[in-house]
Protein backbone atom coordinates (compact mmCIF):
# COMPACT_ATOMS: atom_id res chain seq x y z
CA UNK A 1 0.00 0.00 0.00
CA UNK A 2 1.41 3.35 -0.98
CA UNK A 3 1.26 6.49 1.14
CA UNK A 4 -0.08 6.95 4.65
CA UNK A 5 -2.76 4.49 5.64
CA UNK A 6 -5.77 5.60 7.65
CA UNK A 7 -8.42 2.94 7.73
CA UNK A 8 -11.80 2.09 9.05
CA UNK A 9 -13.01 -1.14 10.57
CA UNK A 10 -15.07 -2.74 7.81
CA UNK A 11 -16.18 -5.87 9.66
CA UNK A 12 -16.40 -6.49 13.36
CA UNK A 13 -17.54 -9.09 15.86
CA UNK A 14 -19.96 -8.32 18.67
CA UNK A 15 -17.33 -9.38 21.24
CA UNK A 16 -15.34 -6.32 20.10
CA UNK A 17 -18.18 -4.13 21.27
CA UNK A 18 -17.94 -5.70 24.73
CA UNK A 19 -14.31 -4.63 24.87
CA UNK A 20 -15.17 -1.13 23.64
CA UNK A 21 -18.51 -0.72 25.43
CA UNK A 22 -19.69 1.10 22.31
CA UNK A 23 -20.03 0.19 18.63
CA UNK A 24 -16.63 -0.56 17.12
CA UNK A 25 -15.03 2.22 15.15
CA UNK A 26 -11.38 3.11 14.99
CA UNK A 27 -10.14 6.09 13.09
CA UNK A 28 -6.73 7.55 13.73
CA UNK A 29 -7.96 11.02 12.79
CA UNK A 30 -10.70 11.23 15.44
CA UNK A 31 -8.80 9.43 18.21
CA UNK A 32 -11.64 7.14 19.25
CA UNK A 33 -9.17 4.96 21.18
CA UNK A 34 -6.07 5.99 23.00
CA UNK A 35 -3.34 3.40 23.00
CA UNK A 36 -0.60 3.13 25.58
CA UNK A 37 2.58 1.14 25.81
CA UNK A 38 2.89 -1.25 28.77
CA UNK A 39 4.93 1.37 30.64
CA UNK A 40 1.97 3.78 30.42
CA UNK A 41 3.35 6.12 27.76
CA UNK A 42 1.00 7.22 24.98
CA UNK A 43 1.43 5.06 21.87
CA UNK A 44 0.85 7.04 18.68
CA UNK A 45 -1.48 5.24 16.28
CA UNK A 46 1.20 5.27 13.58
CA UNK A 47 3.43 3.19 15.89
CA UNK A 48 0.82 0.70 17.09
CA UNK A 49 1.18 -2.98 16.12
CA UNK A 50 -1.41 -2.73 13.32
CA UNK A 51 0.39 0.24 11.77
CA UNK A 52 3.69 -1.66 11.98
CA UNK A 53 2.07 -4.71 10.33
CA UNK A 54 0.81 -2.55 7.46
CA UNK A 55 3.99 -0.48 7.05
CA UNK A 56 6.30 -3.49 7.14
CA UNK A 57 3.86 -5.90 5.43
CA UNK A 58 4.34 -8.56 8.11
CA UNK A 59 2.46 -10.03 11.06
CA UNK A 60 3.37 -8.58 14.43
CA UNK A 61 3.60 -11.00 17.35
CA UNK A 62 4.71 -10.75 20.96
CA UNK A 63 3.46 -7.20 21.55
CA UNK A 64 1.32 -5.96 24.42
CA UNK A 65 -0.47 -2.65 24.71
CA UNK A 66 -3.17 -0.91 26.69
CA UNK A 67 -6.36 0.49 25.14
CA UNK A 68 -8.23 3.31 26.84
CA UNK A 69 -11.98 3.29 26.44
CA UNK A 70 -13.95 6.48 25.93
CA UNK A 71 -14.95 6.28 29.64
CA UNK A 72 -11.26 6.30 30.66
CA UNK A 73 -10.92 2.67 31.75
CA UNK A 74 -7.83 0.92 30.46
CA UNK A 75 -7.65 -2.62 29.14
CA UNK A 76 -4.38 -4.49 28.62
CA UNK A 77 -4.38 -6.61 25.48
CA UNK A 78 -2.24 -8.64 23.12
CA UNK A 79 -2.74 -7.75 19.45
CA UNK A 80 -2.32 -10.12 16.51
CA UNK A 81 -2.28 -7.86 13.43
CA UNK A 82 -1.84 -9.83 10.20
CA UNK A 83 -1.60 -8.35 6.69
CA UNK A 84 -4.00 -9.59 3.99
CA UNK A 85 -2.88 -10.08 0.39
CA UNK A 86 -4.67 -10.59 -2.91
CA UNK A 87 -3.95 -13.53 -5.21
CA UNK A 88 -0.99 -11.62 -6.69
CA UNK A 89 0.59 -11.05 -3.27
CA UNK A 90 -0.32 -7.32 -3.10
CA UNK A 91 -1.12 -5.96 0.35
CA UNK A 92 -4.85 -5.15 0.44
CA UNK A 93 -5.46 -4.69 4.16
CA UNK A 94 -5.06 -6.41 7.47
CA UNK A 95 -6.96 -8.27 10.12
CA UNK A 96 -6.40 -7.94 13.83
CA UNK A 97 -7.43 -9.90 16.87
CA UNK A 98 -7.16 -8.25 20.30
CA UNK A 99 -6.98 -10.59 23.26
CA UNK A 100 -8.08 -9.00 26.53
CA UNK A 101 -5.51 -9.96 29.20
CA UNK A 102 -7.06 -8.03 32.10
CA UNK A 103 -7.61 -11.17 34.19
CA UNK A 104 -4.03 -12.34 33.57
CA UNK A 105 -2.65 -8.97 34.67
CA UNK A 106 -4.85 -9.00 37.79
CA UNK A 107 -3.61 -12.51 38.64
CA UNK A 108 0.00 -11.37 38.14
CA UNK A 109 -0.60 -8.42 40.48
CA UNK A 110 -2.16 -10.69 43.16
CA UNK A 111 0.75 -13.11 42.83
CA UNK A 112 3.26 -10.27 43.22
CA UNK A 113 1.44 -9.00 46.31
CA UNK A 114 1.46 -12.45 47.91
CA UNK A 115 5.15 -12.98 47.11
CA UNK A 116 5.96 -9.56 48.59
CA UNK A 117 4.00 -10.46 51.74
CA UNK A 118 5.79 -13.82 51.96
CA UNK A 119 9.20 -12.17 51.60
CA UNK A 120 8.29 -9.66 54.31
CA UNK A 121 7.17 -12.43 56.69
CA UNK A 122 10.30 -14.48 56.05
CA UNK A 123 12.51 -11.46 56.79
CA UNK A 124 10.53 -10.72 59.98
CA UNK A 125 10.73 -14.34 61.09
CA UNK A 126 14.48 -14.49 60.51
CA UNK A 127 15.00 -11.20 62.33
CA UNK A 128 12.91 -12.45 65.27
CA UNK A 129 14.87 -15.71 65.41
CA UNK A 130 18.15 -13.82 65.31
CA UNK A 131 17.12 -11.43 68.09
CA UNK A 132 15.66 -14.20 70.25
CA UNK A 133 18.72 -16.38 69.72
CA UNK A 134 21.01 -13.57 70.81
CA UNK A 135 18.80 -12.83 73.82
CA UNK A 136 18.64 -16.52 74.77
CA UNK A 137 22.41 -16.76 74.49
CA UNK A 138 22.87 -13.68 76.68
CA UNK A 139 20.48 -15.10 79.30
CA UNK A 140 22.02 -18.56 79.14
CA UNK A 141 18.77 -20.17 77.93
CA UNK A 142 18.76 -23.28 75.73
CA UNK A 143 18.69 -21.91 72.18
CA UNK A 144 16.94 -24.89 70.58
CA UNK A 145 13.82 -24.55 72.76
CA UNK A 146 13.71 -20.79 72.28
CA UNK A 147 13.85 -21.13 68.46
CA UNK A 148 11.07 -23.73 68.42
CA UNK A 149 8.88 -21.41 70.51
CA UNK A 150 9.47 -18.46 68.15
CA UNK A 151 8.88 -20.50 65.02
CA UNK A 152 5.73 -22.08 66.50
CA UNK A 153 4.33 -18.64 67.36
CA UNK A 154 5.11 -17.39 63.83
CA UNK A 155 3.45 -20.47 62.31
CA UNK A 156 0.24 -19.83 64.28
CA UNK A 157 0.26 -16.18 63.19
CA UNK A 158 0.68 -17.20 59.53
CA UNK A 159 -2.11 -19.78 59.82
CA UNK A 160 -4.51 -17.12 61.13
CA UNK A 161 -3.53 -14.81 58.25
CA UNK A 162 -4.23 -17.52 55.68
CA UNK A 163 -7.77 -18.02 57.02
CA UNK A 164 -8.69 -14.35 56.65
CA UNK A 165 -11.50 -13.79 54.11
CA UNK A 166 -10.51 -11.97 50.94
CA UNK A 167 -7.03 -13.49 50.68
CA UNK A 168 -7.53 -15.90 47.77
CA-based shape: rod-shaped
- The residue ranges in which pLDDT falls below 50 over 5 or more consecutive positions are 1-5, 21-31
Q: Do you know the CATH architecture of the largest domain? A: 2-Layer Sandwich
Nearest-integer average pLDDT: 76
Question: Radius of gyration from the CA trace?
Answer: 27 Å
Beta-strand residue percentage: 5-15%
Number of strands: 6
Secondary-structure element order, N to C = HEHEEEEEHH
Helix share bin: 40-55%
Quaternary? single chain
Helix/strand-derived class? Answer: alpha+beta
How many distinct folded domains?
2
> What is the terminal separation in angstroms?
51 Å
Please outline the helices and strands.
Elements: H1 14-20, E1 34-36, H2 49-56, E2 65-68, E3 74-79, E4 82-85, E5 91-95, E6 98-100, H3 102-139, H4 143-162
Antiparallel strand pairs: 1-2, 2-3, 3-6, 4-5
Structure description:
The chain has about 170 residues and is of the alpha+beta class. The protein has four helices and six strands. The longest helix is centred in the C-terminal third of the chain and has 38 residues, at about 100-140. It starts with 13 loop residues before the first helix and ends in a 6-residue tail after the last helix.
Amino acid sequence: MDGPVIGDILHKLSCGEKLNRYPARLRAKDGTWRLYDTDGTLLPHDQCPMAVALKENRPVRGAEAIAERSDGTRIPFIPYPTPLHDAGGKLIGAINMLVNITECKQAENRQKLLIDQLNHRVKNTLATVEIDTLAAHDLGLPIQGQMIGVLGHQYMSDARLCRQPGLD
